[in-house]
Amino acid sequence: MTSSSERPVRVRFAPSPTGPLHMGGVRTALYNYLFARKHGGTFLLRIEDTDQTRFVPGAEDYIQRSLAWCGLEPAESPWSGGPFAPYRQSERKALYRPVVDQLLENGKAYMAFDTEAELESLRDRAAAAGHPNFQYNQITRGSLKNSLSLPSAEVQSRLNNGEPYVVRLKLERNEEVRFFDRIRGWVTVNTQNMDDKVLFKSDGMPTYHLANVVDDHLMNISHVIRGEEWLPSAPLHVLLYRAFGWEDTMPEWAHLPLLLRPDGHGKLSKRDGDRLGFPVFPLFWSHPDTGETAQGYREMGFYPEGFVNMIAFLGWNPGGEQEIFSLDELADQFDLDRVSKSGARFDFEKARWFNQQHLRMRTNQQLAQDIQPWLAKEHLSIPDRLDDICGLVKERAHLSSDLLEEGRYFFEQDPVFDDAAVQSKWKPGVALHLDALRTAYATVEPHEFEPERLETVFKEILAQQGVGFGLLGPVLRIALTGTFTGPSAFAIAHLLGKTETLRRLQRALDELPA
Ligand code: GLU
User: Fold this and answer.
1) CA distance 16 to 52
2) Predicted pLDDT at 131
3) Continuous H helices in 75-151
4) Tens digit of each residue's pLDDT (9 = 90 or more) over 268-306
5) Taking CA atoms, which of 60, 310, 320, 324 is between 20 and 30 Å from 241?
6) Tell me, which fold does domain 94-200 have in CATH?
7) In this predicted structure, what is the pLDDT of residue 5?
8) C-alpha 356 – ligand 1 centre gap (Å)
9) Is 231 in the pocket of ligand 1 (CB under 6 A)?
10) Could you tell me the distance, in angstroms and rounded to a whole number, from the CA of residue 311 to the centre of ligand 1?
C-alpha cells in the first residue's frame, strides 16, 4: 500500500550513536515503525556516525537492544542488512564526495578555506559590534576566503598546497523556502535568515546535513518523521533537494512535538529524571569510558508493552476512549494527522498506570515468570503456588518489581512487624483473641485450609470472644504479613498453608505485647 502519493512508504530511524537512546528517540522510532506498518511500508534503521568526535562505543549496541526490547525491529539495518546496505554512514563515505563534486561543478556549492580561528575571531568581532549571530552567507562570503571570493589562481594554489577546506552550500539571496509539514502545516523561511552550511568537512567526512539528505534520497525514503529539534534544519534539507535536482522525490516531512518535563517547563532531560526519580532511557546504560550509569525502564520492572503504549501517547492519541493498546493495535490505529503540534508533557504516574494495565492483562503463570528475576536478585527461593501468590498480589502492583514488594511476606519467612501498624492495631488484650483463633485454626484439616472455611472459623471466634471484625481482622493480618494493608487475610493464610500460618500466629504471640 502507499500513502497519499502513490509512492511506497519507506521510513527510517536515523540515530547518531552518541549515547543511550532517550525516550524521545524511542518515540521517534515507534512512530516511524507504526507509520510503516499502517501503510504496509518499510521501517529501516540507519546509523548516522559521521561525527567521529561524538561517537560513543556501545551506543549502537544499546540502540539495537533497546529497539529489540520494545519490539520495534527494523526491516533493514546495519545488523540485518538490506537492499541499500551499508546502513552505517561511516561505511558509506565513498558515496558522499562525488555528490559534493557535482554540486561544486554546478556552482551550487563552493570551497571555503577560512580556518576555525579566523571564523572565531570574526564571530567575536561581530558580537562586539552588536551582531551576536555572525553568518557565513550571501552578504559576508564576498569578503571571506573561499572559491567565490578568491582569484581562481589562488584557489588552485591553495588546493595544490593541500590546504584544508570545507565545502559550503551556496544559498541564493532572498530565496523563499516553503514546505509542508504533516504536523506543523506550511513552514516558510527566507534564505536571508540562513547561512551557507558546511556540507563537507576538512577531515573528508560529510556533515550530518549532507549525509542525511543523500542517504534519504538513495534509500528512497518517502517520509521523514523525526523530532522537532530538526525542524530548523528542514529548510536547508529542502534546499539541498533543490540543489541536487531531487525535488520530485523529496520525502514528506513530519516533525514530532517535544517531550516536556512533568511541569511542562522545558524539554525532558536526564537531569529531570534523576531529580524526580524516573528513568529517561529504556534500558540500563553504563558509559564505557566514564563509567557513568543510568537506570532504565526495563530494570525498574516495566513491560515493553506498557512502556511502548505510554510512549505512543506522548504526542499522539487515537481520538477515542481507549488508552490501552497492543503494538498491533497501535499499528492499526496510528495516524500522523493525529500527532499534536504542542509539546507532550511526561507524567511518570501515568507511565506507571499504563504498565499496570498491561500487567493486569497477564496470566498468573506469566506473572510467576516475571517475578523470578526479582526473587533471584535477592536470593529468595521460589515458594509453592507462586502463580496464585502473584494472582493475589497483582491488584496492587504497577511494575513487575512490585509483585515482590507487595508479596514480600510470602517470600520472607519472618516478616518485619511494622511499628505503625502494631501501634495502631495491636490493642491490649488482642493477643488473647488471636490465641483463640490460633487454637481454632489448628483444628482445621490441612486440605480444608481454604479462604471460606478460614473466614467461617474466624467469625465463630469473633462471636465466641464477643469482639468485632475491625478489632481482630487487622491483628490477623499483622501476624501473617507484618502490616495491616494487603489482600484478604484468609486468602493469605490459605496460600501460606496451615503449618506456616500457625507458626506465624505463634510468632506474633511470642514477639508482640501480650
Ligand atoms: N542523526 C539524527 C539524529 O541523531 C537524525 C535526524 C533525522 O532524523 O533526520 O537524531
Assistant:
1) 10
2) 87
3) 93-105, 116-128
4) 999 999 999 999 999 999 999 899 999 999 999 999 999
5) 60
6) Glutamyl-tRNA Synthetase; domain 3 (3.90.800)
7) 54
8) 32
9) no
10) 19
